[in-house]
Specification:
The protein is mainly α. It contains 2 helices and 2 strands; from the N terminus they run H-E-E-H.
Length: 84
Amino acid sequence: MRAKLAADVRTGNDAWAGYQMQLAQIRAARSTISKEADHALQTPVACADGASAVPLGSVAVPAVLVDRLRDAGAGRAPDPAAAR
């Protein structure tokens, strides 16, 4: 009975350690993505010769295009109803 309890405790501890490791990886990736996204949104975009540069975050993008980019990033086929 004690051996079973000890095995269960070890299994639980191993699972907890694995969870904590994954959580740390997610937090690290999330902080990196946030910095990159912030930098990308602050990067000036030159629209045309003679035009003033604007931050990417201030460029209006239609929602349907944003949805298509999300679908492409997730490997999903675009929603045909959204194209209408």
